[in-house]
Design a protein that fits this description.
Helix content: 10-25%
Pfam families: CreA
Strand content: over 45%
Radius of gyration: 18 Å
Number of helices: 2
Signal peptide: 1-24
Shape: elongated
Strand order of the largest sheet: 1-2-3-4
Structural class: alpha+beta
Keywords: Signal
Distance between the termini: 30 Å
Protein name: Protein CreA
InterPro entries: Uncharacterised_CreA (IPR010292)
């Protein structure tokens, strides 16, 4: 593979990874269990859907404190809740898959991951967002769902 082809492949990969991952921004947190080495807390994070302009999702989830939490090796509890809202004009940056991961974040050093999945309900012209966690060996049935109706006259482009 020549240098130009490698650069094009690398640029394409970077674009695809960037287009499918959203960056969470912590809005606030509250302490739930005091520890001298760092309290457990519930954090509220916001992220903008990378492929749908005008939609922001808010995820609240438990975070483990203490020494392990500070070092990033604690396993966070599975509980999470989600609320997605239209915060501006809805604009699609490209066609959407019927179902795809929009955001993932680790909940433990290696084994547990939080997912936010976007599901297109074309019949109702609505975007449905689901949050759940999985684990290499076993996942959790604990989940939360929210929906954002797309304004009439704006069709959801589906691949």
């Amino acid at each position: 593979m020549n240098r130009a082809a490698r650069m094009t492949s690398t640029a394409s990969l970077v674009f695809l990874l960037g287009a499918t991952a959203a960056h969470a921004e912590e809005i606030a947190s509250v302490n739930t269990n005091f520890r001298f080495t760092g309290s457990d807390r519930v954090s509220v994070e916001a992220y903008d859907d990378p492929l749908v302009g005008g939609v922001t999702c808010y995820v609240s989830r438990a975070r483990t404190g203490g020494v392990k939490g500070t070092l990033g090796i604690a396993e966070d509890p599975t509980e999470a809740s989600i609320a997605c809202r239209q915060v501006g004009p809805v604009a699609f940056k490209e066609s959407l898959r019927q179902k795809s991961d929009v955001f993932t974040d680790r909940m433990s050093f290696i084994f547990k991951t939080l997912h936010v999945v976007r599901i297109v309900d074309a019949k109702r012209n609505t975007l449905v967002y689901l949050t759940y966690s999985d684990r290499i060996a076993s996942g959790s049935a604990k989940n939360s769902v929210t929906a954002v109706p797309v304004p009439q006259g704006t069709a959801i482009p589906v691949k």
